[in-house]
Amino acid sequence: MTILAPIAFLGLLLAIPILLLYMLRLRRREMFVSSNFLWQQVVEDTEANTPWQRLRRNLLLFLQLLILLLLVLALVRLAQIVPRITSGKTVILLDASASMRSTDGDEGRTRYEQARDEALFLAGELGPGDEMSVIRVADVSETVIEYTANTQSIRAAVQDTEVGSGAGDWQTALTLAAAGAQDAEFFSMIIITDGGIDNIGQLPENIPAPTIIPIGSSASNIAITALATRAEPGSDPQLFAQATNYGDQDAQVTMTIRLDGVLWESSTQTISARSQRAFPFPPIEQDFTSVQASLTYGDAVTDYLTIDNVAVSIAVESRTRRVLLLSENDNLFLEQALRALPGVQTFRGNIERGTLPSQSYDFYIFDNWLPDVLPQADMLILNPPDDSPLFIANEPTEQVGDIITLEPAHPLLTYVDLDALSLRSYIPLRGTPWADTLATVGDDPLLLAGEDRGRQIVILPFDVRQSDLPLRITWPVLMANIVEWFTPANLVPVDESVTVGTPLRISAPLGTTEVLVTDPEGASSILSATEGDITYADVHQPGIYTVEAVVGSDVVQTQDVAVTLFGTGESDIAPVSPATLTLGGGAVDPEARAEAQLGLEEFWPYIAGLALLVLLIEWYVYHQRLRVPTVGQAVAGRRMERSTALR
Asked: Model confidence over 257-282: pLDDT tens digits?
């Protein structure tokens, strides 16, 4: 037991004036009697008017002294040291990942409901001067309430949170938690999770080893872990579907396939415990755009997580881009780079004709040669020999200065480093207000990119064969970036599907005014397309997202994107022991850590409540004594005295 304010014991000195008041007061009491005994009354008056008299037993005196004692005990703040993990500043990391949807709790309660109850209980343990913050760890981690001592606000914030549908972003959550540890004398981190944390690396040194509250009791779950279609040239698409049994018992399940929402095939397989199995399906002989797979099973199969019993996939349509290459001389470096790019079909043109063929191409590459009339299409111009409507070409120079990258964030320069490039010569260009200068050599542009009359154009004013660019890894990467920047194969450059929480990078066609994204629940978001590439970050649930590029009021391109839980690890719901989690942690003094885990439980609210109760009793007794006895009460009292005397 600990006393936090011992000076309050001085309040017991107030008992002295209370006792003095009882010793000095006149103790007269009005009574109705049948006769007056003057001599006895005189004796009583004499005793009552005596300044100092012997204290007699008095219920009011006892109650008043008890009230004083209780008030003093409340003021001295009696407390005891108890184990507590919410002392000082405490941050709760509440796991809201998809695995927390598992229903292995009592009466089918989800893990997240249990975790939320734990957080509510911890909020009620806050002591005087303690503060708490809560971070929801989902595919996008966020602070649901900043540090506060208001228990009601913390409880309300926790109650308003919901479980997510993807993996938890623990790195962001720990960064948010570390910010709250600054200048904190005692700091505690509490992680409420089923263990799906993985190895999140070394914790900041200002964060002590966290306290982990484990959630979950079973590993029983069956999930679809792969769904995709493949098509060899000239053959029908083949479907690959796989399910995994994460439980400890064999399970017989049926996988049902729907093409564009219409039932197509089903297959029943028995999956051994802790293993996976592919489901055989025939080739798909009909046209389709989307595939949906779902699992069903009998009552003998236990499956605590249902969000991964459904998966979707999109039929991948590979778009071939036709490229026309016109070069004064053979450029093997250029041809090899184009040949290595998937989905690019390159054609060699004849420059002796002086004009372009009538057949249209997705874009044109001019190497050390330009036609009299430039095409109305995208172009890559290398080492231009003459002036053109796009620029003025000066005489080549071998005075090569330092190469400086001006816009490293431009899509053409993704993973591209030109600063160490070696050149024999280059052509200084002038008159290019339509283009952005991405890299310079001395004061002249070395890489230009821009738009002119609806055409996207890239210019490299030097001969790549007279440089070491083709010998660098930068060369194929730069060519891939140029091709993708010209004519992106898809609005969203994904081959099959993306995982929940992965932002969609949208490359809208030239001239697009806005992009419309519709999520699996039918909610639409309108994004402006006036500033190049677009990022759509609200990918919080599995299903099919539809992306549409709009020019004016017309939809010019549409793409469906499948979002799944594949690869997140959320389907493996086996609870993980806190002792096996790899969290790292800074150097912490064990004694300081132990002290930080101790808290004080004070009793003054209970003592003050008891003092109030005694005060009410004292008030009742006092007012009962002030009541004047009636004649009937006096006669009854005298009869009682007589009967007592006769006995």
From this structure: 999 999 999 999 999 999 999 999 99
The verdict on residue 277 lying in a domain is: yes
Q: Angle at the Cα of 271 (from 268 to 274), degrees rounded to 5?
A: 160
Question: The dihedral of CA 369, 371, 372, 376: what is its sign?
Answer: negative
| Residue 288 neighbours by CB under 8 Å, 6+ apart | 259, 260, 315
d(CA 376, CA 372): 13
The DSSP secondary-structure symbol of 75 reads H
> DSSP 3-state assignment of 86?
coil
**Cα–Cα distance, 393 to 411 (Å, whole number):** 26
Across 352-379, average pLDDT: 87
For residues 300 and 352, membership in a common domain is answered with no
Residue 630 CA to residue 644 CA, distance in Å, equals 21
**For residue 585, what pLDDT is reported?**
43
Reduced to 3 states (helix: H, G, I; strand: E, B; else coil), residue 189 is strand
Pair 200, 257 in one domain: no
Whether 419 contacts 403, CB under 8 Å:
yes
Lowest mean pLDDT among 222-226, 325-329, 490-494: 490-494
As a whole number of angstroms, the distance between CA 45 and CA 239 comes to: 112
State whether 334 and 478 are in the same domain. Answer: yes
DSSP secondary structure string for all residues of 134-181:
EEEESSS-EEEEEEES-HHHHHHHHHT----SS---HHHHHHHHHHHT
